[in-house]
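tool=predict chain=A
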Amino acid sequence: MNLANAPVPTAHIFQSNDMVWSITLSVASLSLTTTRYSDWKQFKRRLEQVTAAALDTFDIRTCNRVGLRYINAIRPSSVDLRDSSSTLRSPYSDLVKTDLGEFLGVNTTIDYRIDESVKGRSSVGTIQFMDGEEGVLIDDDTFVEEQIQIEELYPTLDRLNSYSLETFKKIASDDLISKVVS
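tool=predict ok
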């Protein structure tokens, strides 16, 4: 098979006027993203609107993958913490401390299974913001890769959201949790 001539899947991206919300629609997927996440209830309300529009338009009965991905770029100064290591729990905080010379960065990825149907992948690493401040990136993708009946979509998402919060609490320091988790 010559992959150079293979068709490229088309994805349509719809953005809100303020560029905060995006919907991506392709033949095989529907996703909603935001650059200003405030809480699960608000995000879920928006997702319900997007899903309702898709269900009104398409004959969708099952989902083959359901997932939630949280990408947290944490600037220590914006949450009144002294440095990147103070945002993480050990052993992650140990990764961003070094006395071996100039620190250039770190990234670690953990794959895990929560139960027989739920899997996850968390990446923790250092980032540098445009102004030079060093921060931490916590990227968590919690998902189910099996057929889910459409009626089970929101209970599944609620469960994944709970697992994502628990994962964040295992990675983030108590100080960070107290400042960002309500």
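Strands lie at 11-15, 21-26, 30-34, 62-63, 66-74, 107-113, 118-128, 134-144, 148-149. Helices lie at 40-57, 92-95, 153-171, 174-180.
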